[in-house]
Design a protein that fits this description.
By secondary structure, the protein is of the alpha+beta class. It has a domain of 179 residues: Muramoyl-pentapeptide Carboxypeptidase, domain 2 (2-Layer Sandwich), CATH 3.30.1380. 37% of the residues lie in helices and 16% in strands. A hairpin with a 4-residue loop joins strand 10 and strand 11. The radius of gyration is 46 Å and the shape is elongated. The termini are far apart. 27% of the residues are buried.
Length: 283
Amino acid sequence: MHKPKSTRLRWDRIGAVAGVLVLASLGIAAVVPESGTNEEVETEGRVSVMKAPGEAEVTPVENRKVESAAVASVRPEVSVPEVRESVVKPTPSGPLPRKGIAPCSCSKYTMKLARNPYTQHQKRARTLPGSFYVKSKASLAAGAERGDLERIPEVGRGYHLYGLSHSEPFLLPAAREVLEDMANRFADAMEGTADEGASIRITSLTRTQSQQDRLRRRNANAFKGKSSHSYGASFDVAFIDRPNESVTCGGPTWAMQTIFKDMQNEGKILIVPEGICMHITPR
């Protein structure tokens, strides 16, 4: 016995409709994002954000602003260096001596000069205007306050102070005048030549009694009595420092020896050529 045809057709239609509904539901699930999540979609190099239902839509322009702000908050601040015009600088004129450049010696071994007896230096030291025996740093300070001693700048035209381990940077006005006259003559002789920039090195000025005693313990040649240095009257020229390797010792040494002789002949200075320096006192 066969079932009626109408019943068979009904079940076929129901199966077809069900299949369509299943396929439709799968397609919708593939398109609609999961609730509460954002999905990024790249389109021609730009990034847009699709929002879940209920969230505010972010346009591409707003999205780029948000992205830029996020990157700026992470990226460290970079300062742009200031652009300056390049300047051709002359030979460095900083503190001397320069590292690695040997100085030129000023001593009895490198310069031929007449020796004035040390007794003349002592006598002159005691008779210069404002002269007094600098027994201690306290008496040195008092002399400086009175104006009898003047502080010598660390660097001046044609000279510089260096290695004052046993003396103080002070001189009587008459001694300072001689130092500056000598240094200016040297600077004038160097100016405009290949040796320009050379500078005489002053290694000792006014000594207190204790400094003179300490020096005598380490240097047997140091004067045993009251040194002319202890009156603020004398200074030592030990070297000529070269500004660079291209400057040789020949020109500066010859110029300095000539200046010593000229000032000695003019009656302006007394000299004791020593093994490591030239001891100078105003005449």
